[in-house]
Design a protein that fits this description.
Blueprint: H1 2-12, H2 17-29, H3 33-46, H4 51-63, H5 67-80, H6 85-97, H7 101-111, H8 117-124, H9 128-152, H10 156-173, H11 178-188, H12 190-193, H13 197-214, H14 219-222, E1 231-237, H15 244-254, E2 261-267, H16 275-283, E3 286-289
Parallel strand pairs: 1-2, 2-3
Length: 294
């Protein structure tokens, strides 16, 4: 395996920074956090003034949900490189996990005024377009995270404004891949933002119209996906259980016209099945457990 090859190489060159980086990265993907962290500390010994070493250790602690340790190492990375936007964005995520929502909001706001390591690489290549896009990317995610944080503390008006700011950054920076994700965050939270059903409906229609114009559907090809005159619809979720998403989804699933639609549920549920899970299994036509699929 790749990890085995790297490990043998490491035995020969235990101070090779490139090998240590590769092996640590592979071990993280294999969820071997303990050994990956040990190698990352070795890298820190070799490069104690490299902020990314502290940042990587922070991410490893975060993956293990050791948020206080993650925060401590990330703070050190920020001291070494205070103008790195990705450090501030990640610190905001950790503060949210620790329940410090107001702190997280202020930290995300700092990220909008920071730079990014990649800036310097881009500047060396005189690539003004990429530099501009990177700024839009940082601000889009910072504004999105601020909006998500305001939702958590019930400040819905502020959340709505920041979702719109994030989407404006996507449009201005032509962030094609980011806009659908941020749009989804806004649409999923509309029920918290407004109690006017007509307004919620109109916002959904607005986004549907936008994506209809962006995505060309070939209905002649889509017809091949029909079975017995029915259209197949698939839903993928880890929340087919007692969960707020499931409560929202229940009536939609129950009221599908089974004469016209064939329903597939793809579950990557990580907990035990409960009564809601069993109900969904009975309501759909096909249940697929995809938890271990890649």
């Amino acid at each position: 395996t790749t990890s085995g090859v790297n490990e043998m190489a490491y035995q020969q060159s235990p101070d090779s920074i490139l090998l240590l980086e590769n092996l640590s990265s592979i071990l993280m993907k294999l969820h071997n956090h303990e050994l990956a962290t040990r190698l990352s500390f070795r890298l820190l010994d070799l490069e104690p003034m490299n902020s990314s070493r502290y940042y990587n250790i922070s991410n490893m602690f975060k993956a293990q949900r050791k948020f206080d340790d993650a925060k401590r190492y990330l703070r050190t990375a920020i001291k070494l490189e205070p103008d790195e936007a990705s450090y501030w964005l990640n610190l905001g995520v950790i503060e949210v996990e620790l329940g410090h929502i107001y702190n997280a909001i202020e930290i995300y706001k700092k990220a909008t005024n920071c730079g990014n390591k990649k800036k310097y690489e881009i500047l060396r290549n005189n690539d003004a377009t990429s530099l501009s896009k990177l700024d839009y990317f940082t601000k889009a995610w910072a504004f999105n995270n601020i909006a998500n944080s305001y939702i958590k503390i019930g400040e819905t008006y502020s959340a709505y404004n920041f979702y719109n700011k994030a989407l404006q950054m996507c449009d201005d920076g032509q962030l094609i891949e980011e806009k659908p994700v941020i749009s989804q965050n806004l649409l999923c939270n509309l029920g918290y933002l407004f109690d006017n059903a007509k307004k919620i409906y109109e916002i959904h229609r607005k986004f549907r119209k936008y994506y209809d114009e962006k995505v060309e559907l070939c209905f002649s090809e889509n017809q091949k996906l029909k079975t017995n005159g029915k259209i197949r619809i698939g839903y993928v979720s880890p929340d087919f259980k007692k969960h707020s998403v499931a409560f929202f989804f229940d009536k939609l699933l129950e009221n599908h016209d089974k004469n016209n639609f064939e329903i597939y549920l793809y579950s990557n549920l990580e907990t035990k099945k409960d009564n809601i899970t069993h109900r969904f299994e009975n309501l759909c036509d096909h249940w697929r457990d995809v938890r271990n699929n890649t």
